[in-house]
Amino acid sequence: MKKYQLGEFEEIVMLTIGILYKEAYGVAIKKEIETRLSRDVSMGAMHTALVRLEDKGYIKSFDGEATEERAGRPRKYFQITALGKKAMTYTKETRDSLWKAVPKVVWELNGIFQ
Amino acid sequence: MRNNPPPFFHRFFQWYCKPKLRDFIEGDLIEEYNERIRTFGKRKADFRFALDVIKLFRPGIIGRDKNFNRINNLAMLQNNFKIAFRNLQKNKVSSVINIFGLTTGIASCLLIMLFIQYELSFDKFQEKGNRIARVIMEYSFDGAPDSQKGNFTSTKVAPVFSRTFPEVERAVRISDLYTIVKHGEELITEKEFLHVDSSFFDLFHYELVKGSVGKAFHGINKLVLTESTAKRYFDSEDPIGKSLLIGTTSTPYEVVAVVKDYPTNSQIKFDFLGSFSSMGANQESTYYNANYTTYLLLRDEYALPTLQEKLHPFMEKESKGTGSHMRFFLERFSDIHIYSPYDAFVPNTSLGYMYIVGGVALLIIIIVCFTYVNLCTARSVERAKEVGIRKVSGAAKAQLFWQFIGESFVLCVLSLITSLAVVGAVLPFFNQLVGKQLTFDGLLNPAFLLGAFGVTITISFLAGAYPALILSGLQPAKVLKGVFRNTNSAKWVQQSLIVFQFAISILLIVATLVIQNQLYFIQHEKLGYDREHVVQLRINWDMPHDKAEVLKQELNAIPGVVSVSRCGNSPVRIISGYTMAKGWAENDEFMSVNANPTDTDFLKTTELELVTGSNFTIQDMKDAGVEDWEKKQYHFIINESACRKLGWTPEEAIGQKMFVNRPGYVRGVMKDFNFKSMHESIAPLVFFTETTGSVVLVKTTGTNIQETLDAAKEKWKTLVPERPFEFQFLDDSYNRLYESEQQLSQVMNVFAAIAIILATLGLFGLSSYMIQQRTKEIGIRKALGANLSSLLVALSGNFLRLVVIAILIACPIGYLAMKQWLNGFAYRIDLQWWIFLVSGLSALLIAAVTVSIHSIRASRANPVNSLRSE
């Protein structure tokens, strides 16, 4: 039974929000992911992920300043909530436990069959 | 420099995005866009922007804040319905008026829809309907300008056509004659007796119950019965193989099959089908003797025009040298009932009649809608405060609009339910009114119910839209500040609706009065012959002359009988066509004419008047009665029109040689009289001495008519044992000529009454509100010393002015419309001024009474009550 649902891309988005800390808003998150993971992120995918995460209560948002560059639209900054943190830890822990469960021999034998 | 992203995609995004997300995603988009312009240039940025917008078009982003809206809508909807029902209960009078009005309107509309649906459903069940054609014949004589056209053909058409034209697959000839059938000891005249070729079953739909219609129906004296007829004659016995005695000769016909009763919405109607060959009428020598209807089964549905093209050249060849022109036209079977001027075996529907009835129903719906509009706008004063409060609490205009539309919808649905019940209840009367057999089943089929629901929604929209617009557009500040009055535009609309309603009502009253007057005129017009107390009996047309004379004498001997005559047709309707010529020579010019074989007593029995000359003599009858056709000599009595056509003065005409059927001399000239319907003007007519004829006219004194008839029946049994004693009064058969007019008059009566009642109800409701609004004014007037009558004038004058305007509008329209209708009659009443006066005055009177009910109550109220509170 899954306690916390967090998809791969969602996890990335959350981690990026964490990295950016107080500067996490749409365009910044997108750029951060693009540079760090060197992959293209579409506006659509990211915003759907953000909406979903907010619906789940893993992140919360607050309105920021409106700038000339954004034609007067406010920025919306995201922050990880306590629940979000739990979800991330949970995901990481399950991952780790899975990692640990993989017998060492798997890594060593890889070479033989290659 | 500011750059704007592509406007189309920008707007598209704004349209689909959730309002909550819109601003900041938009911000992100624009920020990205601007950055891209700096790095990639405008074109690429534009492209990427568009791509982003399209990629954003996905479930999480699209929407209209569902969560928030859904709950709200449901609650609002419930609340709206609650308010709607509360309002209905609160304003009982206007609710009852509205529901009553709408019910009547919808019910009338449903009935009309049923009627039209029934008419349109005719012959739809015939599987091969679009491949069947009916043959119409037109003929004229060389040199004669007029031609005859109708659904009559001779027996030659069917075989010749199916041999000559590859388009014709099968053909059937049908003859419908009243036929006498013996049932036990009793003789019954069966009216739905068709003689048909066996190909009938290849063309037309039938459901076999028993026996077979294939080879069994070939040959003479075979019979197919419908289920109910079989039950009537054989009860529960198996009729197959048994015989019925048919006709005056009591020929046994063998029953070979029983088929299901035919649907009523069919142009072909029968209880009996006899084999065509039993009549012994089959001949291929002439196209005349056209007493039969021919239907052709074509190869496919597209063959009709091709065949039609070949017919005229073919007939040109066929009728060469015969001295006559003959042409055939084809009618598509499925079009006959609605479009053809020639009746099938049931009367066709008349498009005009359907339009009139449908138009009247539409007018009623309009009146009903207007009543609703008026009552609602009048009540807007009451509901203004509600609207104000709602608007202050944040209701949008659109929400209020739909609330009021919803209210009218609730009302309409309630009315629809009641009107369905009403339709069920009045259907039998309506059937009588329009002379159809509509059933409630037609009402319950899904398509029809859907249609009815559609009408209801339309009405609720038509009637609800204007009040809803007015109400939802009110300014809350104005409304809540203090006293609110109807806006000027609303008043203007209300008044014009009242004018319109009354104009329609007056129009219908005028139409009703004119139709009734015309009918009265027709029914009481002196036609030139006596049709009162004249009884018509039927004998065999070839009953020997001396036998007929005995019958005449015997009947004449009965007390109460004035005179008896044997003839071809009664004077009510003489349509049998002949040709006449001046003189006896071969090359004389032939003209078509209506003619009637009569005897010496015809003039006496019908009291037709001679202008000059004398009646037929007994010797004349003997001249005509000789067996040898070549030696037959006729004598003629012609009418004034025939006299003119032949170019004689009445005095000149006496003793002239002339030719109708056989050569003869003119004995007398009679006054013109109407021997067809009043739609047609009087045509030339010739009476000739002939010793055959299937009608016996008996003129009675009119006293003790029943005794006279009983005595006649006794004698009939011994003298004419081969025929049942069935009589008809001439004035009945005369009135039957105007059945459709009578129907129209009845329909108009009913609908005019409904229209005027509805309009009155509307006025009643409206005046009550208008006067309620003026209670303070009345109070002040009274306090200043106005008396009852001056108050009445002040209150009612306004409404009556509207009715006067309505009269001014309706009268010219009514005049033109009814003039048009009357033009269909050759003999008609003048449109007299009193008809319009009566219609106008009655509308005025009804309006005055309606309004004064409220006015009087308002004027008699104590002014203290109305002025006390502010």
TrEMBL record, chain A:
Pfam families: PadR. Transmembrane segments: none annotated. Residues 22-88 form the Transcription regulator PadR N-terminal domain. InterPro entries: Metal_resp_DNA-bind_regulator, Tscrpt_reg_PadR_N, WH-like_DNA-bd_sf, WH_DNA-bd_sf. PANTHER family: PADR-FAMILY TRANSCRIPTIONAL REGULATOR, TRANSCRIPTIONAL REGULATOR RV3488. This is PadR family transcriptional regulator. It comes from Pseudochryseolinea flava.
From TrEMBL, chain B:
InterPro entries: ABC3_permease_C, MacB_PCD, Macrolide_Exporter_MacB, Permease_put_prefix. Keywords: Cell membrane, Membrane, Transmembrane, Transmembrane helix. It comes from Pseudochryseolinea flava. It is found in: Cell membrane. Residues 95-311, 504-707 form the MacB-like periplasmic core domain. It is a multi-pass membrane protein. NCBIfam families: perm_prefix_2 (NF038404). Residues 360-476, 749-863 form the ABC3 transporter permease C-terminal domain. GO terms for cellular component: plasma membrane. It comes from the Bacteria. This is ABC transporter permease. Pfam families: FtsX, MacB_PCD. Its main location: membrane. GO terms for molecular function: transmembrane transporter activity. The chain crosses the membrane at residues 96-118, 353-375, 400-427, 447-471, 492-515, 750-771, 791-818, 833-853.
